[in-house]
Amino acid sequence: MWSGGWAPEPGAPRLSGASAAAGRPGASPWSVPLGGHTVSCSAEATGLYCSGRGLAAARLDAANGSTTWAVRTNAPDQPGATTMTPLFAGGTVLAAAPGGEVLQALDAGTGAERWRQKLPPGARVVAAGPHVLLVTPNGNVTAFDAAAGTERWNRRGEPGSGWWGARGQKGEPVFYVSTADPSGKSTQVSEVDAASGEVRWQVRAVGRLQPFGTARGSLCLLDNDPTTHAGAVVRIDLATRSVHRVQLSAPLYDAQATVEPNGTVYAFGTQGAVVAVDTNKELWRLETGAASASAPAFLDGRVYLTVSDGRLLAVDAAAGRLLGQTRARMATGQATVSAAVPAPVFSGGRVYASAPDGTVFAVDARNPAGW
């Protein structure tokens, strides 16, 4: 069961206060405590939205970290439970606290609940435009209108299928789904109309492929072997369906990746390497020494990662050179680092990250050397 409320009614308590006052965008750093565990955040023009243990969602002022509203939950504490990053779709914030059994759609401005939907154990939530999917572990999918919560369509799927929300070739919201065959030797990749659930096209490609982004008219995927080592970056042309592979110089274990608008892919593996890959070759490889970190995030010529000890790293995207890092922010007690590390996000010239000590912090994106 969940319980929640939201501020700022007159005299209502704040979840936390900012440790630094706001300055001009991109200038003043701040740090706020949101609990005793790593939280996960997303950034939109309306603010910073964060979820974590005991917290379905909170909206923070991106300029100074003060809390605009917060919706708490009494879901039981489940050590190791994954925190869902809040999703922004259809004018709502979609959130589910760790251990919770309900997906809540909250008004972005006030935190008021618009609708809720039971969340099956192990389900994933994927959004594209005004559409949201609930994907169960057995592969079944139900699509809802994110603004109203009404069901739009459903379909039976395959266990282990990976879904990704994106924009199609003409800018319309679509979902991409990848389903590997039992042998893992090939994967069927499909584009699905987000509004109707209609399959627009399908292509089968070699490898066990997982989508992670789109850029320059291509869907980008990682090719993972059965031991979750990624050995190649794969691109599927959205117009011709042609498949192009770039082999990595060495596999990345438990790889996570992002793609920048010009098509360059940045990936991190849990043995510490960050790599950059264009449409033809691996450009560079940087050994960070971090055993665990987030998916990379790209902004203005830099690649950012959050490390499991709470450090934020900035890397020159062109040269693969470390530009700066923040101090570690480890938790107290037995679990001092995070097993799952949320990626940093951006707004107004700042980079935002979360740490194992339960803080969310902001630093100037333009000056990593001064962190």
The largest sheet is: 4 strands, antiparallel
Spatial gap, N to C terminus: 41 Å
Give unreliable regions as ranges: 1-26
The residue-averaged pLDDT reads 88
What is the beta-strand fraction?
over 45%
Question: Considering DSSP H and I runs of 4 or more, what fraction of the residues is helical?
Answer: under 10%
- How many strands in all? 32
Keywords for this entry:
mainly beta; four-stranded antiparallel β-sheet; 0% helix
Brief summary:
The chain has 371 residues and is mostly beta strands. It is 0% helix and 49% strand.
Description:
Helices cover 0% and strands 49% of the residues. The chain has strands spanning 30-33, 40-44, 47-52, 55-60, 67-72, 87-89, 92-95, 102-107, 113-118, 124-128, 131-135, 141-145, 151-155, 162-167, 173-180, 186-193, 199-206, 209-215, 218-224, 229-237, 243-253, 256-259, 265-268, 273-277, 282-287, 297-299, 302-306, 312-316, 322-325, 345-347, 350-354, 359-364. The strands form 8 sheets. A 4-stranded antiparallel sheet has the order 1-32-31-30, with no helix packed on it. A 4-stranded antiparallel sheet has the order 2-3-4-5, with no helix packed on it. A hairpin with a 2-residue loop joins strand 3 (47-52) and strand 4.
Layout of helices and strands:
Layout (H helix, E strand, L loop, with lengths): L29 E4 L6 E5 L2 E6 L2 E6 L6 E6 L14 E3 L2 E4 L6 E6 L5 E6 L5 E5 L2 E5 L5 E5 L5 E5 L6 E6 L5 E8 L5 E8 L5 E8 L2 E7 L2 E7 L4 E9 L5 E11 L2 E4 L5 E4 L4 E5 L4 E6 L9 E3 L2 E5 L5 E5 L5 E4 L19 E3 L2 E5 L4 E6 L7
Antiparallel strand pairs: 1-32, 2-3, 3-4, 4-5, 6-7, 7-8, 8-9, 10-11, 11-12, 12-13, 14-15, 15-16, 16-17, 18-19, 19-20, 20-21, 22-23, 23-24, 24-25, 26-27, 27-28, 28-29, 30-31, 31-32
